[in-house]
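ARCHIVE CARD
CATEGORY: sequence design from structure
SOURCE FIELD: tokenized fold
FIELD CONTENT:
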């Protein structure tokens, strides 16, 4: 997030898109609801489902799946046409505006209504509402990113925020809500294939030299590694022989699961390191039991870049170790000695080699976390990014055209599927499905469908149906809901027994490598 969670309550207008906030981020959603009900903020929600947060919205725009670039361009078209943009901010702090202005000329509300299904007047009113705010905050999640155009979607939201001068101010910002605990921290620590910690590029000779000296090695490769979504096809084709999976369960969470299962079975050697025996771990040649968050010391970096302490509450069971200890032991046995006395010592190394974490120590975050960047011991942290200027100087507008989803509905597969989460289950259910209370409330998968489509396909609430895509078939119970829109079904992806990801499309965003989980073509039929 460019801003903090607290900043949400300082916004005059909040735009939420691609986020079922009340179910996926229930604590954070309380900030939104307080901003609206107690502090007078206006709320715009753009989502194809009638999710709960729409109850608090002044404007709810129901877009067709995968049409986000189009409606964002339409809002910018209206803002520029009516001269509502922050022109002084654009002139002083940005570049590339002329190209965007030219690109969005054709995205009239009427033209975009045909693409998105959003009435033209609703686009106009939403644009005026957002542009008229002194402080406008954008919140988004994986409903924006999990598309073949996910990178375009995020850049478009950044365009919209810069257009109205909403970056670098309290109550503003472009704020991604992370999908899992410490996703932000994992990325910060180099959990991406082309960077070291702090997003220092492996292709940068100075960064490589610094890391090599810190680690006491002669040289480090300048070749970026493989994205996870490239590893699975490489395993399928025999190019990747071994895979080491830590804390992931791809046999439920990856797209096109039939292909994923074949790929993992094609490996010569599979290692899984986790706290439970997941569906993926059952395929492994070696399973390494690791400690969970409550069984170890360390830090988390949350969705708004706040680095804070995690403290051991209980001892790990059996032979479970801290993840870092397992990593060190494997590295040492492979001929590259790696040894730390404690997680504190690891944090000290992090601060030495990571500029944005340079001033963050266990002592400083003993009682309260610090927002990175905090480059020195005296630096108070940075709750709001880009106050005076952007990291590269001027912020760059990107002229982006709308591209349809990779897969379209047709006569054979006439409906669209989108996937997501439930408030009661977490990710692939590795932990939550071991809780009787949760399983009493949300015990199995379902297909959320509109009453109109239920009538069209002559299926009753609770009936078991087959749902098929070009990649596979599952069975699940019908759930008729006012959240659903005709022509589109929603399936939560948590349940291995009826895994939605047997249906989803593995087509990737060409830049980020993220699969298009959020839209694919399916057909529904009564179970024989």
């Amino acid at each position: 997030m460019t801003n903090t969670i607290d900043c949400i309550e300082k916004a005059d207008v909040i735009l939420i898109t691609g986020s079922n906030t009340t179910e996926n981020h229930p604590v954070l959603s309380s900030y939104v609801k307080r901003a609206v009900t107690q502090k007078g903020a206006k709320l715009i929600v753009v989502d194809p489902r009638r999710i709960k947060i729409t109850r608090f919205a002044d404007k709810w725009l129901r877009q067709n799946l995968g049409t986000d670039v189009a409606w964002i361009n339409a809002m910018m078209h209206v803002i520029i046409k009516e001269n509502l943009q922050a022109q002084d901010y654009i002139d002083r702090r940005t570049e590339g505006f002329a190209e965007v202005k030219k690109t969005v000329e054709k995205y009239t509300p009427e033209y975009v209504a045909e693409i998105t299904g959003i009435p033209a007047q609703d686009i106009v009113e939403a644009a005026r509402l957002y542009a008229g705010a002194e402080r406008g905050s954008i919140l988004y999640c994986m409903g924006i990113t999990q598309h073949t155009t996910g990178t375009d979607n995020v850049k478009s939201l950044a365009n919209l925020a810069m257009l109205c001068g909403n970056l670098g101010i309290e109550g503003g910002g472009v704020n991604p809500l992370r999908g899992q605990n410490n996703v932000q921290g994992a990325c910060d620590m180099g959990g991406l294939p082309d960077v070291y910690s702090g997003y220092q590029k492996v292709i940068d000779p100075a960064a490589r030299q610094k890391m090599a000296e810190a680690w006491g090695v002669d040289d480090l490769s300048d070749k970026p590694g493989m994205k996870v979504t490239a590893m699975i096809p490489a395993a399928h084709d025999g190019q990747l022989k071994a895979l080491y999976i830590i804390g992931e369960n791809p046999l439920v969470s990856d797209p096109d699961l039939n292909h994923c299962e074949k790929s993992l079975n094609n490996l010569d050697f599979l290692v899984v390191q986790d706290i439970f025996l997941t569906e993926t771990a059952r395929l492994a040649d070696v399973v390494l039991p690791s400690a969970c968050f409550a069984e170890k010391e360390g830090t988390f970096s949350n969705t708004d870049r706040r680095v804070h302490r995690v403290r051991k509450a209980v001892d790990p069971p059996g032979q479970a170790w801290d993840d870092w200890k397992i990593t060190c032991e494997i590295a040492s046995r492979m001929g590259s000695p790696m040894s730390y006395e404690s997680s504190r010592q690891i944090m000290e190394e992090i601060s030495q080699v990571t500029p944005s974490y340079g001033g963050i120590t266990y002592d400083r975050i003993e009682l309260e976390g610090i927002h990175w960047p905090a480059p020195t011991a005296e630096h108070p942290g940075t709750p709001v990014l880009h106050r005076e200027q952007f990291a590269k100087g001027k912020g760059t507008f990107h002229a982006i055209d709308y591209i349809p989803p990779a897969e379209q509905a047709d006569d054979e597969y006439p409906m669209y599927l989108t996937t997501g989460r439930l408030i009661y289950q977490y990710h692939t259910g590795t932990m939550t499905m071991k809780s009787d209370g949760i399983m009493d409330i949300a015990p199995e998968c379902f297909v959320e469908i509109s009453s109109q489509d239920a009538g069209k396909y002559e299926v009753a609430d609770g009936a078991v149906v087959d749902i098929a895509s070009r990649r596979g078939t599952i069975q699940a119970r019908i759930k008729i809901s006012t959240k659903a829109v005709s022509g589109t079904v929603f399936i939560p992806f948590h349940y291995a027994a009826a895994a939605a990801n047997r249906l989803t499309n593995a087509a990737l965003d060409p830049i980020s490598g993220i699969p298009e989980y959020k839209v694919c073509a399916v057909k529904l039929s009564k179970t024989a």
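CARD ANNOTATION: The chain has three domains: 6-177, 183-371, 415-526. The first helix runs from residue 21 to 24.
SHELF: design records, drawer C
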